[in-house]
């Protein structure tokens, strides 16, 4: 009998299930990325050029120095973090939109101390300038 067996193997496969998975992943990432809200601090680093835009202030900016051991100095007066927060609140009330705080940390100061001051400024809507560590 002349029955022939076909030994050809088909190299094709169905791509529809793979494209479905890719579209589901695309939709998932598009939805989750729109739900993420950036929680960043508005910080302006000092520029190297003299034409860098600095925050506009009608008066002198308040200076908060952070020492190596973590103590805070608000315009030369040693204060605790809660006292710095109270002073910043009063400063924001008096200056309004023109409030500017300059943060001057020691090179060995903890980053936690610097971020605590930046967080206070962020909560009160005070423009912040961070100087290079001294």
Describe the model.
It is built from 3 helices and 6 strands; from the N terminus they run αββββαβαβ. It is of the alpha/beta class and 134 residues long. It has a domain at 43-48 and 57-130: Nucleotidyltransferase, domain 5, CATH 3.30.420.270. α2 (81-95) packs parallel to α3 (111-124). The longest helix has 20 residues, at 16-35. The termini are far apart.
Topology:
Elements lengths: L15 H20 L7 E2 L17 E5 L5 E3 L2 E3 L1 H15 L4 E6 L5 H14 L2 E4 L4
Parallel strand pairs: 1-6, 2-5, 5-6
Antiparallel strand pairs: 2-3, 3-4
Number of strands: 6
Which percent band covers the strand fraction? 15-25%
> Which CATH C-level class of the domain at 43-48 and 57-130 is it?
Alpha Beta
Structural classification: alpha/beta
The helix content, as a percent range, equals: 25-40%
Count of DSSP-assigned helices:
3
SSE ordering: HEEEEHEHE
Low-pLDDT segments: none
Instruction: Provide the gyration radius in Å.
Output: 29 Å
The largest pleated sheet is described as: 6 strands, mixed
Distance between the termini: 97 Å
Indicate the mean pLDDT: 80
CATH architectural label of the domain at 43-48 and 57-130: 2-Layer Sandwich
Question: What would you call the quaternary organization?
Answer: single chain
Shape: rod-shaped
Strand order, largest beta sheet: 1-6-5-2-3-4
- CATH topology descriptor of the domain at 43-48 and 57-130: Nucleotidyltransferase, domain 5
Task: Please summarize what this structure is.
With 134 residues, the chain is an alpha/beta fold. 37% of the residues lie in helices and 17% in strands.
């Amino acid at each position: 009998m002349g029955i022939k067996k076909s030994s050809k193997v088909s190299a094709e496969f169905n791509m529809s299930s793979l494209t479905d998975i890719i579209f589901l992943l695309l939709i998932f990432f598009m939805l989750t990325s729109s739900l993420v809200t950036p929680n960043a601090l508005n910080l302006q680093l000092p520029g190297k050029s003299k034409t860098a835009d600095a925050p506009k202030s009608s008066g002198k900016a308040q200076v908060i120095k952070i020492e190596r051991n973590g103590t805070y100095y608000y315009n030369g007066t040693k204060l605790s973090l809660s006292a710095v927060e109270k002073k910043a609140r009063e400063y924001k009330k008096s200056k309004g939109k023109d409030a500017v705080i300059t943060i001057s940390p020691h090179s060995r100061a903890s980053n936690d101390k610097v971020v605590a001051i930046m967080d206070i400024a962020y909560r009160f809507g005070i423009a912040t300038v961070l100087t290079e560590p001294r």
